[in-house]
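Bug #77: duplicate submission created two jobs. Keeping one. Sequence:
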Amino acid sequence: MFYYFLLLGFILIFFTSSNLKSQTVLPLNHYYIQQIEQNHDKNNYYHTAIKPYLKSEFDKYINVDSVLLKEKYNKAKKYGYLKRKLFYESAIIVDTVDFYLAIDPVFNLLGAINLARNNFLYTNTRGFQAKGNIGNKLFFITDFYENQSFFPEYVSEYVSTNKIVPGQGLIKLFKDDGYDYAYANGLISYSPFGYLNIQFGHGKNFIGNGYRSLLLSDNAFNYPYLKITTTTSWLQYTNLYTSFIDINLNQIYEGGFKKKYGSFYFLNLSLGWLEVGLFEAVIWKTDSSFQKQGYNVRYLNPVIFYHTVQNSLNSPDNSLIGLNLKITPFDKYHFYGQIVVDDFDFKRIKEGSGHILNKTGFQAGLKLFDLLQINNFYLQLEYNSVRPYVYAHEAPLQNYAHYQQALAHPLGANFNEFVSIINYRWNNFLFQFKYNYAVYGADSSGTHWGKDIFKSDLAAQNGFPSKTNALIYGDGFGNKTTQGLNTTVQFFNPEIAYILNPNTNMQLAAGLIKRKLNSETGNNDLLLFYFAFKTSLSNFYFDF
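Kept job's structure:
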């Protein structure tokens, strides 16, 4: 039913008249986003929380092409064919009155020396990207990547356990200890009216203004979605309907993976200097153990908080609500934050502290642009804290995850984290340093302290209210953030890159990764030097 709905919607809007300019969707990449936000004028009604960005929305206030291409904007035609293709333009361009198409190779040729183990690692990624417009109505983009990788030990352990590369596809074994995997993205974006945009895609979305998002991030693998965004000058409302997969268990009746669905709602108010967003997410399933059922159309209800009210009346669905906030007192100073609430029981607060049903998390962050009045000098500081058992559920299939990966933070829950990012752009050189420090409570054998969102709440260490005998199972009180096996992770990553072609963020890069994990059960250190020739259009998170 879900896919029939997508097809019907596409047919209807394709034949709707429009006088809009092309609706290019910008890459979901932190550095691209940073460049857009650097030009934020607090007196304009930007909506910056929903990503990826629709270029036409920001072209109202800034020239996006000149921002992203910098001094290379409008200079390409001055040079010869080969120089234009290497450093300025797409590899193949078809440009007529009613049709535009750009095709580029995309790749990541990365080699690394593991100095701790004195061995060589590499990633070999090859693919293509095609994007364009049909008339002035429709934007499309598709890309495909084929990969072979040899990862450092901590990533290989994650991949071997979860059968998935972080943020990417399912694996096949490659040679003795490597992995082969592929993934594809794509979307169609259409705006039948000036205030309405409709997207059909297979990819990722991000809600928030930080490096992380506690509401919905781009941490997990791609998924099919329908996104409907309605925008006025100061108000924006987004409905996002998705299909997710649990790769833990096969469906008995079909032999495939179990599916679940998500309905997301985000209402954002922008006054230029202030953005306030209200968030709701509902994860639900229609399948029983022995029978596959159809898509339940009642979950297409576009009204925010309708399902949360319904869940308060003993609905079996997994519902979250949240708040996103951004304050820009000055153009170069951005303060932001989030609050996420999975469950909250006022009655339990009066009875005692740390009850399992009080599942909350928060984020606080700061972005400084042109720091010390130095152009293109950027600093970001961010703190994230999530209590135990947030994003989990009594029924693991309805947890806040997709393809064995969290839909919010890569650490799951039960953690505190500090992130700092400094970068400086000088001509085509980009210097960046990133430092992460996280503390979380891990599980030992047979325990469930709240970090692992793929375990049932019913197995919680201090008990769960639905268990009838509190004397045996516990009463659910006494939980605190980072309970369990105390573990700290530090992640240092300095990098220098030379940007060759900003169209695809093609660059030569070299850097160092130092990871230190200290736990009650032992320590693990990594020191890695790497060099890469790559096109960097997506975010992949290995800092966990």
